[in-house]
Each structure stands twice: as structure tokens, then as C-alpha cells.
Structure prediction request, 203 residues.
Amino acid sequence: LCIASSNWYSLGKFNSKIREMKNGMENSLLRSSLVTAVALAFAMMAVAAEVTVIDGQTWCYVLRNGTASIGARSENKLAVPQKSKGRLVIPSCLGGRPVTQISTWAFYGCSNITEITIPKSVTDIDRTAFLYCGGLRAIRVDPENAKYAACDGLLLDKTRKNLIFCPSAVKRVEIPDGVTAIEDSAFESCQLAELSIPDSVET
Prediction:
């Protein structure tokens, strides 16, 4: 009986050890899968920027998920060369894909640009996209754009109730009546001399 008990105890330890090994292997596989998933995610994010020239203007963009995003923050590349000047019309298509995004710091410090026109294809504009464009006086938006609008050079959402951005070179601003909210960074790079706020503004 003692031998049987001893054998049973040893078998129990053996089974326990097998379970530990199995759990260890499962955890190892799980960790390996997570590492692989994270690596793939970063690989998808690290898409190389592409450059093209349209009507003499150089554009830097990234293709991802069937669309184009101008600017490449991951590579510290602006949407256009910083020396670009005058009026810019953002292409509605780059690399054979619709331009849907204006990325982080896309036009940062492009102080010689005076006006930017946004095409109807754009659905996402980062709040920092036009900061510190010292010469920017107006933003225009294609009337067919479903998400954004412009009024007196100011960037608004399509409902015209949210003021998104005021160009840096504007000194006097009269916020359109009907605007109810002003985005936190709307006037971040401005040096206003005069600002008129309608009664409709709540936040």
C-alpha cells in the first residue's frame, strides 16, 4: 500500500508538471503572438512617404488603407517644402488615391503660404496642421466637402457651428453668427488685434 501510495503521489507530481509545462507553452505562444501583432501594427504604421510634383509644387504624402495623407510626421516631413509660397490648392488625389487626411504639423512653419484650399475629399484635419504659418491669411474649402466649411477665411465644421482654426496672419476676426463652439487651438498661433465674439458662442 505504501508503494502504491508512493507511485500515485509521483504520478500526481508528474501530471502537475505536465500541466505547468503546458501552461508555460501556452503563455509563451500568447506572448509570441502579441509581440508579432505589435510588430505588424508598427510595420503598418511605418509606411514610407512618397513625393510628387504637381504644377511645379512638391507634395509629400503617405498611402495607407486606400487613401492618401499629406505630410509624414513619422519621418518629420511636411506636406510641402517649407519655402513654398503663395496660394496652395491641396490635390484631391495623390498616388492614385483620394487625399482624405491633413496630418500632424503638415504645414508647420510654412510662413510664406498665404492661402490654402482644401478639396472635397478631405475628412480629417489634425488640429496642428496649419500652426505657425505666419503668412497664412485664409483657408478655403471646396463647397462639396462633407465635413468642413470656410467663412471669411476661417475653418469651420460643415454645420458652421464649430470654429476649428483661424489663420495666423489674420489680425482682426469677427466670428460668424451661429458659431456655438471654438476649438481649443483655434487661435493658438495668432496675434490678434481685435476679436468679435457673437452671442451664439457657448464654449
